[in-house]
Amino acid sequence: MPSLLDPAQRGRVILVGAGPGDPGLLTVRAVEALRSADIVVHDGLIDPRVLDLAPAAAQRISVAKRRARHTLPQDAINALIVAHVKTGSVVVRLKGGDPFIFGRGGEEVEAVRAAGLKVEVIPGVSAALGCAAEAMLPLTHRDHSSAVSFVAGQCKGLSEQDWSGLAGQGRTLVIYMGVATAAQIADKLMADGVAPDMPVAVLEKGTLAGHRAIRTLLADLGPMVERERVGSPAIIVVGEVVELSDAENKLAAWARAAEALA
């Protein structure tokens, strides 16, 4: 693979996974890419210390996306990247987590290739891997889970999505972007046959300052998110492996609330 610092390798885009937040989780190749950048097109939750790895003269362009509030729609981001690459610039598209896990990296690669331009992808530590490791939560385990699935909790038509078989005994389900729809997610999983007492964890702001790992049972997921005022970014993990983690057990609060209502 040619060096990212090779001056002959101009006019291209490098999709870089910035990991879940902690700059220490960047790969060596990600750091090398940032140092070669003329332009950094970045997500909104990128740690400033990561952006500082790019040359001081490099232009930094935020294309922050938050729920229902986008600085630029995806088509405009694609067009922005292509336009800058066509000038001969090295464009680093810096994305939280991994570019190909709910990062729309596939769409950006398609757009760059359709324009006949060069593109490289540097994977990153995904939010699921980084947050789970911090909480000592093994996503697979010989005694508890031999399969793991990733789904998006903000997808259109959530109730129509077929998640059957993704969660349950011997399986782990990781839900990205599910805080706002936590109650609906719990209802959907239980309607699909997942036991109400299946352990579930919410990993909030993983690897960042103020991170929390809290857990309860599936039936309490929605109420717990509301009680604990969980905010984004956060992921939800459903499965027996949750009981092996360091996540703080919030089930007692639910039990007290249920008893008070009885």
Automatic annotation (TrEMBL):
Pathway connected to this protein: Cofactor biosynthesis; adenosylcobalamin biosynthesis; precorrin-2 from uroporphyrinogen III: step 1/1; Porphyrin-containing compound metabolism; siroheme biosynthesis; precorrin-2 from uroporphyrinogen III: step 1/1
Protein name, UniProt field: uroporphyrinogen-III C-methyltransferase
PANTHER family membership: S-ADENOSYL-L-METHIONINE-DEPENDENT UROPORPHYRINOGEN III METHYLTRANSFERASE, CHLOROPLASTIC, SIROHEME SYNTHASE-RELATED
Lineage: Bacteria, Pseudomonadati, Pseudomonadota, Alphaproteobacteria, Sphingomonadales
Source taxon at top rank: Bacteria
Gene3D superfamilies: Cobalt-precorrin-4 Transmethylase, Domain 1, Methyltransferase, Cobalt-precorrin-4 Transmethylase, Domain 2
Catalytic activity, EC: 2.1.1.107
Ranges of residues in domain Tetrapyrrole methylase: 12-221
Record family assignment: Belongs to the precorrin methyltransferase family.
InterPro entries, per the entry: 4pyrrol_Mease, 4pyrrol_Methylase_sf, 4pyrrole_Mease_sub1, 4pyrrole_Mease_sub2, CobA/CysG_C, Siro_Cobalamin_biosynth, Uropor_MeTrfase_CS
Alphabetical UniProt keywords: Cobalamin biosynthesis, Methyltransferase, Porphyrin biosynthesis, S-adenosyl-L-methionine, Transferase
Organism of derivation: Sphingomonas aracearum
Entries under CDD domains matching the protein: SUMT
GO biological process terms on file: cobalamin biosynthetic process; methylation; siroheme biosynthetic process
Family annotation (SUPFAM superfamilies): Tetrapyrrole methylase
Pfam families attached to this UniProt entry: TP_methylase
GO MF annotation list: uroporphyrin-III C-methyltransferase activity
PROSITE patterns attached to this UniProt entry: SUMT_1, SUMT_2
Keyword Mitochondrion belongs to the record: no
EC top class, as a word: transferase
